[in-house]
Amino acid sequence: MRFLLRILDKVRPNFEPDGRFAFFKPLFDAFDAFCFSPSETTRFAPFARDSLDIKRYMSMVIIGLLPATLAGLYFFGLRILPVIAVSYIAGGAVEVIFGLVRKESINEGFLVTGLIFPLVLPPGIPLWMVAVGMALGVLIGKEVFGGTGHNIFNPALVGRAIIAVGYAKPMTSTWIEPGTGLWGNLTSYLTSPDTVTIATPLVKAKQGELASYADLFWGNVSGCIGETCAAAILLGGIFLIIIKIANWRTVVGILGSFVLLNVVMREVSPDRFAPVGFNLLAGGLLFGTFFMATDPVSSPITNPAKWAYGIFIGCVTLLIRSLTVYTEGVMFAILLGNIFGPLFDEVVFRFRFRRYRLEI
Predict the structure, then answer these.
(1) Are 170 and 129 in contact (CB under 8 A)?
(2) Which of 28, 45, 117, 230 has the most CB atoms at less than 10 Å from its CB?
């Protein structure tokens, strides 16, 4: 790495504002920051230090996503690798273009979005659709709002919503039967997904057939790439909570409200509401709770608002899943939560600072 650092230091003047390649400075800075810690330091006091900068934050989220990613690779085969690669290429291209045009730095945020997006897609989805969804998700979900830190929606969910509405058939019919045994599907590369299509547990539940809790927990079911193995999701999600990347209030709010409402509605209408354990483990609830609803940019910033945000998402997820034609409701619930998140914060601010306004 020292050799690479010497090369970067040598060519750095060419990317300065008066250098030959000044237009590509955002791209150079992004590569430099990705490989090494930023070299800039503050010159004058006060010296504030935060142990959680963007680079460390994104690195920890990637680590938290690894169990679910590896589980998807095991169950659905080597085709998962090009799906992830296309997602990174498409999303990274949009990030780079906007960074160069705006002359703004390109941070590591797209590394997380580029991995989350393919994990919420069916494993048999066409690669061109992955590129379209990821590019539009970054463009519409983030860049039009001003880039990283300014978006009100989770870009990965925006991309998924776009292709879920625009290409409903591939998004609901390219499910693959998971591999079993020592190597799962690791030794295969699926080239014709339509020949092995199988219904997901939530689709079967609409028909009155419930998968076993053991299969749901260990991932021996069809579904989106990173959403089938509850054990892997919990492993990565709890890791993020322990290191304080994911806020536990949002997680408890979502899962707690989901369970409580499910228990009540199960007593009222058992034919429309599945058992609590099944609803918790099936579909994308756990993945969305730990890895998308806890996004610090698109979620509320105050602790009371995080509780309200989580409760809102948990209740809406169950209602959409059980009372509509959609078999899954997490995506729409989180997007709606992103809309109402600032309102929850506003209510908290007005309540907390009301006394000061009265004094003035």
Answers:
(1) yes
(2) 117
**Peptide bond before 270: cis, by omega within 30 degrees of 0?**
no
Is the Cβ–Cβ distance between 253 and 310 less than 8 Å? yes
Q: What is the pLDDT of residues 247-294, one digit of tens each?
A: 999 999 999 999 999 999 999 998 889 999 999 999 899 999 999 999
Distance CA 227, CA 224 (A): 5
CA nearest 309: which of 146, 139, 152?
A: 152
CB 317 within 8 A of CB 329: yes
DSSP state of 76: H
Are 275 and 103 in contact by the 8 Å Cβ rule? The answer is no
Start-to-end CA span in the chain (Å): 58
Burial class (CB in 10 A: 0-12, 13-18, 19+), 301: middle
1 by DSSP, 3-state: which?
coil
- Rounded Cα distance between 339 and 348, Å, is 16
Give the position of tokens 């230091």: 9
CA proximity to 305, closest of 341, 251, 272, 253: 341
More confident residue, 220 or 10: 220
CA–centroid distance for 288 within its chain: 7
Instruction: Take residue 316 and report the two structure tokens written for it.
Output: 């809406």
Locate tokens 């994104």: which residue? 58
Between helix 155-166 and helix 127-141 the angle, nearest 10°, is: 130
What pLDDT score does 180 carry?
79
- The residue type of 160 is R
Instruction: Return the amino acid letter for 104.
Output: E
Amino acid at position 22, single letter? A
Q: Which amino acid is at 61?
A: V
CA 186 to mean position of chain CA atoms: 24
287 with 227: CB under 8 angstroms?
A: yes
DSSP states of 161-228: HHHHHHTHHHHHH---PPP-SSSTTTT---S-GGGG----HHHHHHTT----HHHHHHT-S--STTTS
Give the C-alpha separation, 121 to 227, whole Å.
Answer: 9
Q: Report the distance separating Cα 110 and Cα 35, nearest Å.
A: 15
